[in-house]
């Protein structure tokens, strides 16, 4: 990342002194014409905007776990500063999506949501109770009997039933709440393998999430972490000699998945992942860690693919289907936690903003790469979050100030403070609050200060953004319930429960235009012949 010193010597910037401090201010921005021209260009783009009313062939849902609006803003600045700019003027890939809405994230039974009930909302189209997956709010957490008859179908399942290829890509364990609601029906998000099942669940016939991963919807691409839950407890992990599988039923779920699928492959490291030939592979399962994958800052480049690489591989396999595909992509590492789970989300829970924001930047790279591999004409892409975090970003800092740096002003105790702070979490300064500087606050493991002491920072309850582009993307507007998301996406693709929609595909529209042009040409020729006669 560019340091403050590096930014100060960039030739296109000038230094403006203020109260003994300095701000890096681009010289061109001091000319009002810069902003007039920028405004006119944006206005022209708005006036020229047309709605793509075709049927979506492909659907991609990008989920930044814990990626509230403050995280998006801070990630934008970090991205720019990593490129040697001041940062604030930077543009994320998701920033270019023309349609925007807000999503209300509350659960049926809780004001502050969790990743399971929110996942049920944006996958299945109904709001649910805290901690439950793929079930309506009639089900109760950790109660197996309450799940029966209350299962709800996900958009991933409906896409598969419509003949599309489907996939999930996650930086957490693939049995984690966010991806799990797309294929499982569980009253308890923590039932990763049969080891976690309660006696009531076993007696009641409830299945663990890993079991449901391979026995419910037939998923073409499964990439992420979580291999521990797929193997018997007697099986040693191929990468970590002290780690074993967790299954008590002695079932090797990976082998069971492979034997029932033609042209299928399983990989657990980057070398084998890179060797997968997309044209020869119809099913791919890649599990790169026993539980969650490593943060981008800590990723072993020789062992684990990046989120962007996983997204690319998934799209190249899925897009072979002439009927299209549905892909769910999650970065949970954005989450602001000490345990490893969407690493955006995990970084926030740990109170370590640097981890969360670098994950958000990588998440945006994956969005950009997906755009390069697909067409906006037939692919509806949606970016959103399941919930936010109590992560704030302010402090009267100058332009170009390091995103994780300190404010130019002092607190009431006469000490410096960082721009990035948490409302609660492990960064609470017990005793005397320490003084701060940019070197300390920009270190990888620094815990941003928090107002309330908790061992893990919490989710936020405010609305999160929805960004959309592609066919019928204009359906995302205003303030919506989170459960609206799969309804709009399903309608755009004309899949259940909206299979009777009358939208035409791009190909059909093109054929009609060609037929109309031929008709006009024939009528014109007939008119000319009539005139000659």
Q: Which short descriptors sum up this protein?
A:
Alkaline_phosphatase_core_sf, 16 helices, two-stranded antiparallel sheet, alpha/beta, 533 residues, ten-stranded mixed beta sheet, disordered N terminus, Alkaline Phosphatase, subunit A, 17 strands, globular, 2 domains, membrane, Alkaline_phosphatase
Low-confidence stretches: 1-22, 336-342
Number of strands: 17
| Domain count | 2
Strand order of the largest sheet: 7-8-6-5-9-3-11-16-4-17
CA radius of gyration: 25 Å
CATH superfamily annotation of the largest domain? Alkaline Phosphatase, subunit A
Mean pLDDT: 91
* Number of helices, where a helix is a run of at least 4 consecutive DSSP H or I residues: 16
Subunit structure: Homodimer.
Pfam families: Alk_phosphatase
Binding site for Mg(2+): 65, 176, 178, 330
Family: Belongs to the alkaline phosphatase family.
Describe the structure.
This protein is of the alpha/beta class. It has two domains: 4-46, no CATH class; 56-390 and 457-500, Alkaline Phosphatase, subunit A. The protein has 16 helices and 17 strands. Helix 3 (69-82) crosses helix 13 (353-373) and helix 4 packs parallel to helix 15 (484-493). The model is unreliable at 1-22 and 336-342 (pLDDT under 50).
